[in-house]
Amino acid sequence: MTLHVYDHVTRSKKEFVPITPGKVGMYVCGLTVQDKPHVGHMFAFVACDMIRRYLEYLGYEVTHVQNFTDIDDKIINKAAEEGIGFREVADRNIDLYHQYAAELNLQPAHHYPLATENIDGIISYIEKLIEKDHAYAVGSDVYFKVRSFKEYGQLSGRNVDDMITGTRVELDEKKQDSLDFALWKGAADGEPSWESPWGAGRPGWHIECSVMSASILGDHFDFHGGGRDLLFPHHENERAQSCSCTGEKFVNYWLHNGLLFLGDKKMSKSDGNFFAMGEVLEKFRPEIIRFFLLNAHFRSQIDYSEERLKEAESALDRLKRTAVKLQEMVQVAEKRDLTEPEAGVLQAVISYRNRFFAAMDDDFNSAGAIGVLFSLSKELNQYYSSIGDNSPAAEVISESVAFFTEGIEILGLWRGGFAEMAKSVSSDIPEDIIALAAERDKAREEKNWARADELRDELQKKGYLVEDSSAGTVVKHL
Predict the structure, then answer these.
(1) Which CATH architecture best describes the domain 4-302?
(2) What is the domain partition of the chain in residue ranges?
(3) Gap between the Cα atoms of 426 and 316, Å rounded
């Protein structure tokens, strides 16, 4: 199977073909840094890190660009509220992002452009749009002519004539059309500003990304990432102004991750409906948060709660125990001919590996890939039970270690990879209890509900709480 990626324009998955053989350009919309990053923000960056890791595993040389919007109405307002400069507000939140990114095992982007470092390029870009009659100046403001781009609305599936002005679309009587959006904003007294042909001002939000991506990746590149809430108007506007300016396609594949919800509302700084990343890290280890975010397809909505993070912690512990046990088995594995049952186990491991990569090739389905790792874990627990005190076959263990190592690294589930993951286990659940839980999982798979109930009762009598999760049986001390 080859990698297929969802295409927003055709509304279908299509085979990934890079613009330049062997190379990939990926731009990710970064933070507007008026406040601390929250866990909803980090979902986008964890998802794109997973995608980058897989592309690099496939052999592509990836150039990863992630911007920071470091000048914006909200940043200016925050600075005024605190009586400090906008630069101080922006820099402290950029520093926090890098701290949290490292904890979540994100590979650093190759480039982190800032809007304020690209003012000259933004001004030149706007001048080209005016020359091509896609933009117009009104006093010290400049607007993009939405209806001058015939494909406007195609990315988000909207009809221009049916559109209602949405979030972050500026309303101004000076516009020729209510849908037109600002490329350059004249500065009010006391605001940070830069000189331009239209007077002192600063860039509009959308133009920044067109300029910063093109300055590093060129006018046409492979992937553009960001949250689903950026699809309209931000990415629609980016596409319109970029295609209008350059005549190029702009982006081949858009990577819109789903949103994190608290109750019935999406996690949002502006609504005060969010958990700051620092607060979450005080309660949960970073690998648990990363695992939680990747245990769903990146385009899916995720319902956030501490209860679900605790479930993720229990599930990740099971994978950690698999790593520890594999490391133990490596030390005692015996090179010998396989028995017939062992040959079946080896074929199962190979089949799981194929299923893992089939999931990743299906629009980077990390949830499906993680599910395969749990299947491997169950298979190995059953194998250990079947051989009793005998040594495991080296061929089975080495194949399992190789696959498990690949999977952990591709998903970035543990800093330091398999070797670090195999060093310790946070839970002190003994092996006989783990084996009973694995046996219960097998009974449930076979719909042998009576046996599953017997095993639940046995585990409870031994002093363990039994919980069912998407990853299988979870046991905890009562």
Answers:
(1) 3-Layer(aba) Sandwich (3.40)
(2) 4-302, 306-427
(3) 10
The pLDDT tens digits for 346-396 are 999 999 999 999 999 999 999 999 999 999 999 999 999 999 989 999 999
Amino acid, res. 179: L
First to last CA, the chain: 45
CB of 368 closer than 8 Å to CB of 359: yes
Helix 119-131 to helix 236-246 angle, to the nearest 10 degrees?
70
**DSSP code, position 153:** T
Say if residues 93 and 33 touch (Cβ distance below 8 Å). yes
pTM of the full predicted structure? 0.86
Contact 436, 458 (CB under 8 A): yes
* Residues 292/39, Cβ–Cβ less than 8 Å: no
Instruction: Measure the CA–CA gap between 13 and 4, rounded to whole angstroms.
Output: 6
**DSSP track, 39-98:** HHHHHHHHHHHHHHHHHHHTT-EEEEEE-BB---HHHHHHHHHHTS-HHHHHHHHHHHHH
Fold topology of 306-427? Four Helix Bundle (Hemerythrin (Met), subunit A) (1.20.120)
